[in-house]
């Protein structure tokens, strides 16, 4: 490793301004206006893994006609020569480069933990997503929670000006831009600072790199991808009555005509309109209240970085010049399904401008170096962090407010109002340098000799670490099940974080099912006037009339309505309001958070009915599940539903009220798909329920004699998109084979002989960008696509998964599915569908994550579309979806003792209400390395690394990702051992907080996603990667490291009581064959499946009472259910398994394993502590780690 840099210096050019640039209308740019260079790049060599943290951002291209949507789409993402100026261009799009220009950035990396493998600079290219200023949707004010049964949702242009994006979106690091030569350890840093003003619909181009040609060549060779070039306008209206409709209309029973049909082409157009140039000078002095023009120019600023119109060009300003417009609109409120189409209604459509959200003050940054924290030091015993923090002022128990204090000159946060607060100032000064290392060392820091202490697994599940806060703040903090940080003690500086060699990030489960959720129905949603943070338990009240934001420190007024507490029915106690007493709340949003009436719940089912699908028998299960849960679909009286089936043609179903039976409409011209009767294909669920039931009863038998072996999935999805575009909603796709006809057809890329390869694993990325472009179009129209893949052969999930990844959908995978031959998979599909059809759902959602100044977000993981640097677009949001965020420390946090993170999810409920769910997390800031290790959350660290490794596997290679995971353990433990005193270097020592780190990483390396040398189907590997990117932490950890229990000797001694049910709690067992005995029975909980392994000499009484068979030999091979036997052992076993099932959304399938059972191989592959032909045992892995540390 290179030497650790002890200082971070700001360049002399900081604060300078570059001239304005312009580009043609229809192009968009992201323009930061502050940048600072950093000199930490020598800490690690950048030659081996140059692009680990780098993912190409979305590149937005101008609207184009069909003549340019050609084979050029699959070319490289970057050309060799970077664009240096904007200008009109009539050339067709080549690769991913349009006449729009892009800003290539490099930012200081928050996590550079892999010594000699990763650079501390991330090379990133971010082009913002822009939106036109006009819309044809709903500019009128609404009443909160109103239902709109008579509102017609007119068809809108179906195109989408979306470009390339990735599920893990690398974003520019705040305040620091560097271009890194990815083939050498040298990096070229150009300090600069910008104040860029962007005209409406215009783009700007910056040249930020010296030796630009060399850097760009390297980017061209290393960062490749495909761009989603899409049409700006597609006419999705009904078919012209003057043209013949080439479709076949017939009544049930359905017969497919052999005659082909044709379809009218969609009208495609490209509109460009010039806009006047806007420019103004930056303010010469800070101001508390800024004009809208200034706020418009500055955009959103985080810790020295300004996202200047990152999401779109500026919107016209109204005559109002004060801050009132910030209260009327919000960035989350700016969600509009027509935001990517051209129309005539002047609706404000700029996320950041509408919100006014960000730090709008002008701050002076000196070039003084920031001193690096000292090495481990011992300090005296201290009180918990946040002790005395004024979140709940006891002085406000009376109605009389405290004596107001006159403002003084603060001198540390220019541009904000500041009031001297003795308690806050004393808190910061007293907690600034505290350390957890006092006379009595915390348990989390106790050294553990990993090679000596073999039994490190706890007897019960690993709990989340509790932040070292005072008791009041600890009670108020957000549940780790919803919001979790990899480090519960936040380092003061990026240098300290780099020294710890641990990643800083957040794991989110924002929409999870909650038994208790405070719902705020107040007409006033109190938010910070500067950064737009929602009021929360960690703000401080200066007096009854003023509160101080815990993220940007601005002092805000308390609205009069907020003085009344509806719970206590008292006045004058704002600190007792539910918003300030709960870190997770949900607001009922007013019409200010709407740009159109809340959409109805719309569900469209797209079903494969080819010969392969009929043979698998899934249609019977799907139709039966729909019939059983039709009345339980989330929605209201406006709920709509539709069905499309496909094989080599596409079939629509007219279910209009008044028909005596369903009507089948067939379109066989799949190259020019159209909607035969657009107004009758999506029908009201309640009005047409009988026709829907008739169709569901008939569908399983309609195609029993089909000989169609082809699959036209692409054209069916195109039709589904056209059908859903006017309203948005959810498309559920059921596919059983490789698409073989029409748009989006795929060819087999898997070589079965390479499934056990220990070298390179190919084809982890998509073969075509068709499904990605389609998903981005769907996202623009507030439509998510969920994929159910039920395949017995290779189906190229790497390509098909894109339809869900980029539209905020979800993926379900059932390998080797057959209704009769594989009853376990059939049962799993049935249970998954029950949950899928009945769980709550949020439509047209957006999510924004805010954090204390000095922290910044640079990468997201999950299924979504990135609208701007901290705003995610989620066409649908479901309670089973998880997200991960990587963060960095851009400014020293020495002036604060606490940092906070807040996520706000704005969505439309299935009942038509606009709601905002807010989670707030508070964590202490520490200055010593030991404190950082003491607060490490090992499960969160492993889950974040898993997300990062998936990206690395796709962007580089599986071998690189595996090496990176190993290096994460080596670097962190080496850093700990070198910093701690009195440790023998010949031993492998870890703090208690990280003692499970090597075990979890070994388990990760043996997962299907990353394992080598073991036969693994390509679709199985890709699905495991998809799961790691989208599952919440609690479920992902079960997948990485299953739980093993011995259940043949359950007793009532150690039990818990759940709803009048006694549940045994057997201890956890090591995942090793040495724990298995022939006389025992063991249950393995893998998250989505339970394995019940029965030993050959297992007690016959247990087999009889629990399994219902007289002896071992009589137990069948494919047993998936436990009978209800009136015996104590049966009741205990079923109670324990039911308790495990109730703790997760998707009910796992139970599979009984005997020695001769084929599933025995899967069971033993989960025993990760044992050695295999291609992988270390746990002890061998520890020795390997120790050898690498001692090198």
UniProtKB/TrEMBL annotation:
Compositional bias annotation for Polar residues: 1-10, 235-253
Topology class, membrane: Peripheral membrane protein
Domain Sec23/Sec24 trunk: 598-837
Region Disordered, residue ranges: 1-34, 235-291, 305-377
Domain Sec23/Sec24 beta-sandwich as annotated: residue spans: 842-926
GO biological process, one term: intracellular protein transport
Domain Gelsolin-like: 1064-1137
Ranges of residues in domain Zinc finger Sec23/Sec24-type: 525-561
GO CC annotation: COPII vesicle coat; cytosol; endoplasmic reticulum exit site; endoplasmic reticulum membrane
InterPro entries xref list: ADF-H/Gelsolin-like_dom_sf (IPR029006), Beta-sandwich_Sec23_24 (IPR012990), Gelsolin-like_dom (IPR007123), Gelsolin-like_dom_sf (IPR036180), Sec23/24_helical_dom (IPR006900), Sec23/24_helical_dom_sf (IPR036175), Sec23/24_trunk_dom (IPR006896), SEC23_SEC24_subfamily (IPR050550)
GO MF term list: SNARE binding; zinc ion binding
Domain of life: Eukaryota
Pfam families per UniProt: Gelsolin, Sec23_BS, Sec23_helical, Sec23_trunk, zf-Sec23_Sec24
Keywords assigned: Cytoplasm, Cytoplasmic vesicle, Endoplasmic reticulum, ER-Golgi transport, Membrane, Metal-binding, Protein transport, Transport, Zinc
Main location: cytoplasm
Biased composition (Low complexity): 262-291, 310-320, 335-345, 364-375
Family note: Belongs to the SEC23/SEC24 family. SEC24 subfamily.
Name this polypeptide is given: SC24B protein
Organism of derivation: Lanius ludovicianus (Loggerhead shrike)
